[in-house]
Request: fold
Amino acid sequence: MIVLKSLAQSGILIPDDLAAADPARVGGKAAGLARLRDAGCNVPPWFVVTPDCNDDAAVEAALARLGAPACHPEAPPCHPELVEGRATIATFAVRSSAHIEDGTTTSCAGRFATLLFVSDDGVLDAIRRVRASSDDPMPVIVQCMVDGTVSGVAFGIDPVDGSDVVVVTAAPGLACGIVDGDAITDTWRVTRDGTIA
Reply:
């Protein structure tokens, strides 16, 4: 008799798993995605590979659950569901989710590797490369890739002077140009009542 482990037992968490919002288990970035999803935001489908997961077959099974239809930008909001076969090849963002990222005191933006437009046959190698960008074991997010028309980064306080305003920086294309400092951006400072300062 063969006993199959669940994805969670193998170290793969999907948004519906209770631990998917636990930063101690999935890191700051993945916990943020779970909170956004639970708040009703349309978050591109994703799963997180915990540091204790070394099961390539479990990663492949999780990828099959995402599938191309779930990653299609015109598909209705959805989260990992079993998909039989892929009509088209989807690409993925493979992202770090270290425990020190996106925390209440630090963001660590750009400190660890992020690989974009990864084909499904490159995801396992991408996970290894993202893990190698840290000296400490860290969770890794695998998320359906969205080629953004406009992207942005928001900070809960001003990262330069610490003042109590939300700072939103946006630019055409993907947010990596903003994080890397390569994009020409527009920036808004927004007070807690929603007024643009």
Summary: The longest strand covers residues 166-172. The CA atoms of residues 15 and 38 lie 9 Å apart.
